[in-house]
Amino acid sequence: MAELNTKGGKKSTSIDMTAMCDVAFLLLTFFILTATAKAPEVLPVDTPQSTVQTKLPTDNLATITIGKGKVFFDLKGREVRKKTLELMGQKYELEFSDDDTNKFALMESFGVPLQNLKQILDMKASDRAKAGQPGIPKDSLDNQLKEWLLNSRRANIDINNKELEIAIKGDAKEEYATIKQVMDILQDQKINNFSLVTGLRGKNF
User: Fold this and answer.
1) How far is the C-alpha of 183 from the C-alpha of 167, rounded, in Å?
2) Alpha-carbon Rg for the chain in angstroms
3) Is the sign of the CA dihedral 137, 139, 141, 144 positive or negative?
4) Considering only 61-70, 110-119, 169-178, which range has the smallest mean pLDDT?
C-alpha cells in the first residue's frame, strides 16, 4: 500500500508479497504430491520425423514397437489386457494367478516370450527397462506376436465391442526385414489399416 507524506505526495510504495508466496508454495506442493513419474521406456526408439499431427486414441489401441531387431507389444485398457492374457494362457496352456493378471493389467509394453512373462511381472517397473527383454517371438516356428494380435483383437471386441486399432512405433534406423516381418503378420490377419508413430518436425516454409 502506498504511504503518503503530510504534503500529499508519495513517500514510498511497498507490496506485501507474503500471501502470494504462500499461494505459490501451496501450488508447488500440490503438483509435487499429485504428479506421477513417467516410467522409462522398455524399448526406446528414435522415431522418424513428420509434420503430420494426429493423436492416437487412448483406448481400443495396440502398439507394436520395433527397434534393434526386437518387437515389443502394448495394449490399452486394463480389462482388455486381462482378457488377452487369459486367452494367451489358454493357447499356450499356461496358468496365471490373479496377482499376475492384475500386474499385467497395469504394465506397459513388454517384449518377452509368454513363458518368461511371470519373471517380468515380478519386477518393479523401473527394473523392467534394465532387464534386457529379448523381444516377442515372431518367426514361423514360434509366432507369438501373431497370437498376441489375434487374442487382443478378440478381447477388445468381447470387452468393448469394437475392432482394435493398431499402431507401429519403429526406430528410424531399423532394418526393413524386421518391419516387413511385422507387416506380413498384420496382413495375414487382414489388418491393412494401421498408424505409424512419428516424431514431430517443424514445417519449413
Assistant:
1) 11
2) 25
3) positive
4) 169-178
